[in-house]
Amino acid sequence: MQVTELSTEGLKRQFKIVVPAGDLSAKVDERLAELSRTAQMPGFRPGKVPVGLLKKQYGQALYGEALEQAVNQSTAKAIEDRGLRPALQPKVDLKELEEGKDVEFEVAVEVLPEIGKLDFSGIELERLKAEVPEKDIDEALQRIAKANREQKPVDPPRAAQKGDAIKIDFVGSVDGVEFPGGKADDYVLELGSGSFIPGFEDQLVGAEVGKPVDVKVTFPADYGNNDLAGKDAVFKCAVKEVLEFVDKPIDDELAKSSNFENIDAMRKAVGDRIGQDYAQVSRSMIKRQLLDKLADGHKFAVPEGLVEGEFNAIWQRIEQAKKDGEKLEDDEDKLRKEYREIAERRVRLGLLLADVGRSNSIEVTPEELNQAVIREAMRYPGQERQVLEFYSKNAELKEQLRAPIFEEKTVDFILELAKVTEKSVTPEELMTAARETEEQPVAPATN
Prior knowledge:
Blueprint: E1 2-9, E2 12-19, H1 21-36, H2 51-81, E3 91-96, E4 103-110, E5 124-130, H3 134-147, E6 150-153, E7 165-174, E8 177-190, E9 213-218, E10 232-246, H4 252-257, H5 263-297, H6 304-323, H7 332-359, H8 366-378, H9 384-392, H10 395-399, H11 402-417, E11 419-425, H12 427-439
Helix pairs in contact: 1-2, 3-5, 5-12, 6-7, 7-11, 8-9
């Protein structure tokens, strides 16, 4: 094998490789010898087929097999001998291909950049920390009590009010003719919920049991049923019961219904959950700070192929949004430029974090990967078993969960080395800061 370097430009390398014809012939002869020991042909005993006949029948296929093997092996050796780390699969361009002659081909490959030694001790970051006020816990418990509220008949009887629920029978008609789906019995409707077409619920405020009500409405022009869209309708309603909602008291019984020992245990769990939410917001903000500083402080070149792949993935989502009817906020050429810069930033940060993780032996354990699968399954209540089985049968899909875990562990590693100061803030200040951070444009990475 003869290797000639054709060009070295930035992260791009190009070689010409020549594989002697004799090497390929030797591989073909070797395979023919293997085949002859077991080959069968009419008129010959197994293993006694003449090599010449085998070569005539299988020679072309064996040559193709030997050629593919030679190209792959010689390409890998040329890259390994030069200590290169390919960013993408090398591109091979066959120049000479004729059986009996030397095989000549060119290899183009983009390599990963050498990032060098990194020092994170000079990075200064601020972590916002919000304590959970008692009022936040009180409000959360009130929401839980409201979610578990009960419906009880009003006593003494009275007319329905907004916020009540009423049990009704109703029949809808257009021009005196009933229409499909416009009839129900014992339907419980919360007045003010907005679950019916505009105007329906308002006309039932003040309704009383036993007194029929004709509700006159107009279906919206964009109503899902074209036969009813824009039509005037009358719903004859019979009010059978007026119900009021009664919140459950915030006590041990409420706690036990939510699988807690008592209200104190429930209160602590609610406070911990809110605290975790605040901590997650704070974590997202300091991670954004860190990534911005890493992007600003490291301007090494990145492989164009990786940038192109990342940009195409972003732009496909833009194209899909356009098909779904969304309008572009800016000129398309301007957006393409902005998203290409974002793609470059993402690739640069990805390479930097990967290098930090590799050089510091950061790994994702099987237990961490399994926990990620369980968390993914919990996102689909009632289908947890199916999701777990799906991941168990799709190893590649399961491996996709590895990257975000690796990134978070690497970020944690860098945060341990950086200078992080904590600042106590109120929850309102934390959320305001988070919104302002989200509104800030991503600073694009530039060479």
